[in-house]
Design a protein that fits this description.
Distance between the termini: 50 Å
Number of strands: 5
Strand order of the largest sheet: 3-2-1-4-5
Largest sheet: 5 strands, mixed
Strand content: 5-15%
CATH class: Alpha Beta
Oligomer: single chain
Order of helices and strands: HEEHEHHEEHHHHH
Length: about 210
Amino acid sequence: MARARARQTIENASRRLGFRRIAGVDEVGRGCLAGPVVAAAVVLDPARPIPGLSDSKLLTPIGRDRLFALILERAAGWHVAAAASDEIDLLNIHRASLEAMRRAVLGLEPLPDLVLVDAFRIPGLFIPQRGVVGGDRRCSAIAAASIVAKVTRDREMLRHHASDPRYGYDRHKGYATAAHLQAVARFGYSSLHRRSFRPPSLFDGPDE
């Protein structure tokens, strides 16, 4: 089955309403046991199209890397922000994800005049925005943001693996695979792990 390609239908309709600098926003890492949640905001340049944009989850690692390089080269603007494990534990994953997305948008220079967000609306954002259900598969700008966020986070997890290979971040990037859970049961938590995501059957002792 052919991979669904994201389109610029929503962006083009928004331009007809007078919006010019339109940012797509997405995040990755919500369901991980370790590592940050990473968000990206991308403003595509309609004069420099990027063929093949799609939801990052539908792309191969090689395809993501190729599109990542093209996005950084051709986009009119992009910015990445994150919420680390301790902030996720403090806020909860949903609020931390929204905060990372808000930071990504506010890091754009100049700021966009419209923000398209995958599924959610971002609280505390003073810029007009629209939540697009399934946006990373439907909207080119959101798909581009999903790719930038995914590649950025994966590369960060590879750096963590290089400094501490016990947990196998090069394979699972912090998601709760069986091998990852076995490594945590053996070695305990690292500073990268989210305490609020602790599986109690593995880690709670008798006096906790």
